[in-house]
Design a protein that fits this description.
The longest helix has 31 residues, at 335-365. The protein folds into four domains: 11-219, Heat Shock Protein 90; 234-358, no CATH class; 366-425, no CATH class; 435-492. By secondary structure, it is an alpha+beta fold. The strands form three sheets. The protein has an eight-stranded mixed sheet. Strands 9, 10, 11, 12, 13 and 14 form a six-stranded mixed sheet that branches. A two-stranded antiparallel sheet has the order 15-16. Strand 12 (280-285) and strand 13 (288-294) form a beta hairpin. The chain is 40% helix and 19% strand. Helix 2 packs antiparallel against helix 4. The radius of gyration is 31 Å and the shape is elongated.
């Protein structure tokens, strides 16, 4: 008959293993801010201090704080079961995030908290755990609490989390190189927080007050991935999927074409988001962004669909169905949600394709004879130079039959060697930097004169006809005022 035998894990070995669950600085800090939001904080200050012999990173909030007993529970590994039903606005999950997130970046975790005039402090030291091979938690006395960095800034209710011995954050570097690495990570951290908590930062989460997050005194501004402030964005009707008594809400959006963004908007979005890789579903748990940029293999990512987004909201009561991981950076929709997403995805993607291709289609339709023509035949799509364009047709006539055949081969070679992949890559990442037109006024005028000389034998060509030819070439799209002045002077 079997017998029970207690076999607790090695504290030193397990704590070392827990450091490698895959947290980055930004996901670790976001996990701690979840706790601040759950504690109903309205202000969260992040301070990274590199000056002095004892660098630290601290997160200070004005939430409701904890009693001494609550602090001990919070410091316990597995302080809450994922099966427990949490409060409606609780952003926690496993009762591990505070510890695992902190240990992924540091070796010493100190917490000071205050509620109702009672101030408590506790500290985990991985060095002590390694030495004793026991889960030994240090309970701080009043003098030790006062010595914790920023403890003097703690309000009558709130919590201070301090990371010290920042071995992972510094990557074993020192001096200027260390500071450079940390500053790069802090820049990524700010961008991450501005996206993950954008609805909290904007005060859009129902039943919760707006929060303010600062990083070294700099206010973190919300980054809306749906560009809703721009009037050219499109918001499609919401769909609701019922799972038991809970509702999952799906709201599709279509981003504006980059030509519809102001210079400031374009710079803001281009510096914080890659349209191609970030298309897809944006999954929110209690208003907090969990995962994004995935179509869950329901449709391939592509250039034409890069403007499509679907906001999906679910409550924490459905955590088990969504297979949330410890870092709260991965979530997979349950079957019912996937099926509904499959039903609406063609409509969303179709709208995105329309917006994205709209400009390209107009280039072909706005003149009777465009320079380029698009053909969809024999199951493929190809692009070719239009032989009927006045500039091409006139040149073909003047060069004669033999040279005309050589010119035709050249035009076919130009079309066949169109660097589609290079254009695709450049346009995907930097659409506004792709420009095919001259910018110097002297060059513009020289090209206009050369274009006019190409039709010197056409005595019927008038100012209006020439203007249409100018527009058809798209060489002068950014210099139409110069072109119109040239035409007014030359076609008197």
């Amino acid at each position: 008959m079997s017998r029970e035998h207690q076999l607790p894990p090695s504290a030193a070995c397990l704590s070392a293993s827990m450091r490698d669950l895959g947290y980055s600085l930004e996901t670790a800090v976001a996990d701690l801010i979840d706790n601040s939001i759950s504690a109903e904080a309205t202000v969260v200050d992040i301070v990274c201090q590199l000056v002095g012999p004892h660098p630290y990173l601290a997160i200070l909030d004005n939430g409701h704080g904890m009693s001494g007993a609550e602090l001990l529970r919070a410091m316990k590994h597995g302080s809450a079961s994922p099966r427990d039903r949490r409060k409606a606005h609780d952003l926690g999950r496993f009762g591990l995030g505070l510890k695992t997130a902190s240990f992924s970046q540091c070796r010493t975790l100190s917490i000071v908290t205050e509620r109702d005039g009672e101030r408590s402090g506790a500290e985990w030291s991985l060095d002590l755990i390694d030495e004793k091979d026991e889960w030994i938690l240090l309970i701080l006395d009043s003098a030790e609490i006062d010595a914790v960095p920023l403890a003097d800034r703690l309000t009558p209710h709130g919590t201070l989390v301090v990371w010290r011995d920042l071995d992972r954050l510094f990557e074993d570097e020192t001096g200027a190189r260390r500071d450079e690495i940390v500053n790069d990570k802090l820049d990524v951290l700010e961008r991450h927080l501005s996206l993950v908590f954008h609805r909290y930062l904007a005060g859009e989460v129902k039943g919760r007050r707006r929060i303010a997050i600062t990083l070294n005194g700099h206010t973190v501004e919300p980054f809306d991935p749906f560009c809703r402030k721009n009037p050219a964005h499109q918001e499609l009707p919401e769909d609701i999927v019922r799972i038991g008594s809970d509702a999952v809400r799906l709201r599709p959006y279509i981003l504006p074409h980059h030509s519809k963004l102001s210079a400031a908007e374009y710079d803001f979005y281009q510096s914080r988001s890659d349209f191609i890789s970030n298309q897809g579903a944006y999954i929110y748990r209690n208003g907090r962004l969990m995962a994004w940029g995935d179509w869950f293999r329901l449709v391939p990512k592509g250039e034409a669909t890069k403007l499509a987004r679907v906001q999906i909201d679910f409550p924490n009561s459905l955590d088990e169905s969504w297979t949330i991981d410890i870092k709260k950076s991965r979530a997979r929709p349950p079957h019912a949600v996937r099926e509904r997403l499959r039903q609406i995805i063609n409509r969303v993607v179709g709208r995105s394709t329309t917006v994205h291709r709209g400009r390209g289609q107009r280039l072909f339709e706005e003149v009777d004879a465009p320079v380029w023509e698009r053909y969809a035949d024999q199951g493929g799509i190809r692009y070719a130079i239009n032989r009927a364009h006045p500039l091409v047709a006139g040149l073909m006539t003047r060069v004669g039959a033999d040279s005309g055949r050589q010119l035709a081969v050249l035009l076919d070679a130009v079309a066949a060697s169109l660097p589609v992949e290079m254009v695709y890559s450049d346009y995907s990442l930097h659409p506004r930097e792709v420009a095919q037109v001259p910018s110097d006024e002297k060059d513009v005028v020289e090209r206009l004169r050369a274009l006019k000389d190409a039709f010197a034998d056409d005595t019927t060509l008038g100012a209006g006809d020439f203007l249409e030819i100018v527009r058809s070439t798209h060489l002068f799209d950014a210099n139409m005022e110069i072109a119109k002045r040239f035409i007014a002077e030359e076609f008197v």
